């Protein structure tokens, strides 16, 4: 990789392939993988990541919203795409672009059914989302018989899969709760399958679920964060490779004297001679203001440079008093050594939030190393 000359997010497709193979190695031979590429592929580049994963052999893609699925179709992705959170206003584009909706309530079921009928569809694939305890989206147990009555008396839609989502698959202290979720999913999905004249496939594990509940793999697993290099567990993360590296450059260096202040609100007061570097990345790019005033840091020439003063919209200033560096030098915000997980933990956040927040104005550079 040549040196960064501006702020850029590097997407390493070799790391993605490594993570895919690692997660695949945890699956039974018959279990398929659904790659979760919502939120621009967890902030990376949904199209590039999906093209690579399609080549690697993932069976299915999942996005959160219909427009994310449209973007993949526009880029030529042919694999089936599950839309986890469709809204009635998206039904038209969903059918037009062959996207497969998650149906999570009786109202959605009836709404999508009448839409599919109006569009002269037969056996349009839908996925039944079961609420087993996350209490976010999904049918509750007592709605299943009503749903089945509706489904079995028509031919416009067909249940391709039944799925649920775990609330705390990464947390060993919640094992009992998770096992209860899995049991409920098993019971409800059995009920549905025995009422249908065909057999939908089943899935309920996310990345941490793959690691912690291998007995619940069913036909397919849905992995997001693991593909991008984070495992919600030290030993797993150590075996994965972060896909995204966020780099920037030093725009300007300032030599500050005692009594000077740095940045908005004069938040940093210089006590002893301080050398600062101004970087072209700010809170509009996804670097939260919470990282300011010494909380977060970047890496310059292998040394940690704390973010000082308040994070501005388009810039941050970092303390480089003890770092040999000059204007134009490359800066690493996060990557393989100082990771998005390390940085996000400084503000009690998680890598999911930091990597998905990286703004679309930052150039994506795709490579393999
Ligand atoms: C985001 C999401 C996933 C992926 O979870 P990871 O922890 O990133 O693997 C799986 N299933 C559903 C329903 C999701 O919303």
UniProtKB/TrEMBL annotation:
Record-listed E.C. numbers: 5.1.1.1
Catalytic activities: L-alanine = D-alanine
Binding site for substrate: 136, 313
Keyword DNA-binding assigned: no
Main EC class the enzyme belongs to: isomerase
A single BP term in Gene Ontology: D-alanine biosynthetic process
A molecular-function term among this protein's GO annotations: pyridoxal phosphate binding
The keyword Isomerase is annotated on this UniProt entry: yes
Residues the record marks as active site: 38, 264
Pathway: Amino-acid biosynthesis; D-alanine biosynthesis; D-alanine from L-alanine: step 1/1
Domain Alanine racemase C-terminal: 243-367
InterPro entries given in the database record: Ala_racemase (IPR000821), Ala_racemase/Decarboxylase_C (IPR009006), Ala_racemase_C (IPR011079), Ala_racemase_N (IPR001608), PLP-binding_barrel (IPR029066)
Its job: Catalyzes the interconversion of L-alanine and D-alanine. May also act on other amino acids.
Family, per entry: Belongs to the alanine racemase family.
Keywords: Isomerase, Pyridoxal phosphate
PANTHER family in the record: ALANINE RACEMASE, ALANINE RACEMASE, CATABOLIC-RELATED
Cofactor(s) the protein needs: pyridoxal 5'-phosphate
Residue stretches in coiled coil: none
Residues carrying N6-(pyridoxal phosphate)lysine: 38
Name under which the protein is recorded: Alanine racemase
GO CC annotation, single: cytosol
């Amino acid at each position: 990789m040549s040196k960064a000359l501006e702020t850029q997010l590097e997407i390493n497709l070799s790391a993605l392939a490594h993570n895919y193979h690692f997660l695949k190695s945890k699956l039974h031979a018959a279990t398929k993988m659904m790659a979760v590429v919502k939120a621009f592929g967890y902030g990376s580049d949904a199209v590039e990541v999906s093209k690579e994963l399609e080549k690697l052999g993932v069976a299915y893609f999942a996005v959160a919203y219909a427009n994310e699925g449209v973007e993949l179709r526009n880029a030529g992705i042919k694999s089936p795409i599950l839309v986890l959170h469709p809204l009635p206003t998206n039904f038209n584009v969903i059918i037009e672009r062959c996207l497969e909706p998650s149906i999570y309530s009786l109202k959605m079921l009836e709404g999508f059914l009448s839409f599919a009928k109006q569009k002269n569809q037969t056996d349009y694939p839908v996925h039944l989302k079961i609420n087993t305890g996350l209490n976010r989206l999904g049918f509750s147990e007592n709605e299943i018989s009503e749903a089945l009555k509706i489904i079995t008396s028509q031919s416009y839609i067909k249940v391709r899969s039944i799925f649920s989502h775990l609330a705390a698959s990464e947390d060993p202290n919640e094992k009992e709760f998770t096992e209860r979720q899995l049991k409920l999913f098993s019971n409800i999905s059995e009920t549905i399958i025995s009422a249908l004249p065909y057999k939908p496939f089943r899935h309920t594990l996310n990345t941490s679920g793959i690691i912690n509940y291998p007995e619940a793999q069913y036909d397919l697993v849905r992995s997001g964060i693991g593909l991008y290099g984070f495992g919600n567990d030290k030993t797993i993360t150590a075996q994965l490779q972060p896909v995204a590296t966020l780099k920037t450059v030093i725009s300007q260096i300032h030599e500050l004297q005692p009594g000077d202040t740095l940045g908005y609100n004069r938040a940093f007061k210089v006590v002893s001679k301080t050398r600062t570097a101004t970087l072209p990345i700010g809170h509009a790019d996804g670097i939260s203001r919470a990282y300011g005033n010494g909380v977060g840091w970047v890496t310059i020439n292998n040394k940690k440079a704390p973010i000082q003063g308040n994070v501005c919209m388009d810039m941050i200033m970092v303390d480089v008093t003890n770092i040999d560096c000059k204007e134009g030098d490359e800066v690493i915000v996060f990557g393989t050594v100082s990771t998005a997980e390390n940085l996000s933990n400084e503000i009690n956040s998680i890598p999911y939030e930091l990597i998905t927040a990286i703004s679309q104005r930052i150039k994506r550079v795709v490579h393999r190393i």
